[in-house]
């Protein structure tokens, strides 16, 4: 039974790795400039940065930490997951329950969940008018107590924080000998060379 379970996990991991994930490039820009479109574009920009910052990480990369007191790349990925969930929950009008549970542990599932959260959040924001956007609240629930914050806190909080930590992934993987994909262009939102460089 244990052998079949392990085989199931391996097959699931392979299938997730083969699934086409969002944000290998930034989607076309919105047709008009408004509050919802700006949040969508910020989320898409984060998705593009994260896609390439987290692509093809090795066990050595995931275990890397710049010092004993610092978070590892794996732990940083898990933190970005929590931030992506906060962005999605705001767009979905759902509370953020603390402590956070059921964080994916395996790298492929963790990366996929983050990208899917960002894609879904961007889609939801794109469907909102200005009145709806203005009513968005970032809600936290902990031990029966609830606290709410306006959408401004989403922008300077989890959205900006996720971009910040994605930059850490870029730095960490360079230090662990696995630099980010050549040809990635955050200004244009596209990557010219998609085949990974030779790594030892």
Please describe what this structure looks like.
By secondary structure, the chain is mainly α. The protein has one domain (2-181): Up-down Bundle (Four Helix Bundle (Hemerythrin (Met), subunit A)), CATH 1.20.120.450. Helices cover 56% and strands 10% of the residues. Strand 4 (184-185) and strand 5 form a beta hairpin. Helix 2 (35-53) runs parallel beside helix 7, helix 4 runs parallel beside helix 5 (107-126) and helix 4 packs antiparallel against helix 7 (151-175). It is globular, with a radius of gyration of 18 Å. The N and C termini lie far apart (37 Å).
Show the helix and strand layout:
Elements: H1 2-18, H2 35-53, H3 59-63, H4 73-92, E1 96-98, H5 107-126, H6 130-135, E2 137-142, E3 145-150, H7 151-175, E4 184-185, E5 190-191
Parallel strand pairs: 1-2
Antiparallel strand pairs: 2-3, 4-5
């Amino acid at each position: 039974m244990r052998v079949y379970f392990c085989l199931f996990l391996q097959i699931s991991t392979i299938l997730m790795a083969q699934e086409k994930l969002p944000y290998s490039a930034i989607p076309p820009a919105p047709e008009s400039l408004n509050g919802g479109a700006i949040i969508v574009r910020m989320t898409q920009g984060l998705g593009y940065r994260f896609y390439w910052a987290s692509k093809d990480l090795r066990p050595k990369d995931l275990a890397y930490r710049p010092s004993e007191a610092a978070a590892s790349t794996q732990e940083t990925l898990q933190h970005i997951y929590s931030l992506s969930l906060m962005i999605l929950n705001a767009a979905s009008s759902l509370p953020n329950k603390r402590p956070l549970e059921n964080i994916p542990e395996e790298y492929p599932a963790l990366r996929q969940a983050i990208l899917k959260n960002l894609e879904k959040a961007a889609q939801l924001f794109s469907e909102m008018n200005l009145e709806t956007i203005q009513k968005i609240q970032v809600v936290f629930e902990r031990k029966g107590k609830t606290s709410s914050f306006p959408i401004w806190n989403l922008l300077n909080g989890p959205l900006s924080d996720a971009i910040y930590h994605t930059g850490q992934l870029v730095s960490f993987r360079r230090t662990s000998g696995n630099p980010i994909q050549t040809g990635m262009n955050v200004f244009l939102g596209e990557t010219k060379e998609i085949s990974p460089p030779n790594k030892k």
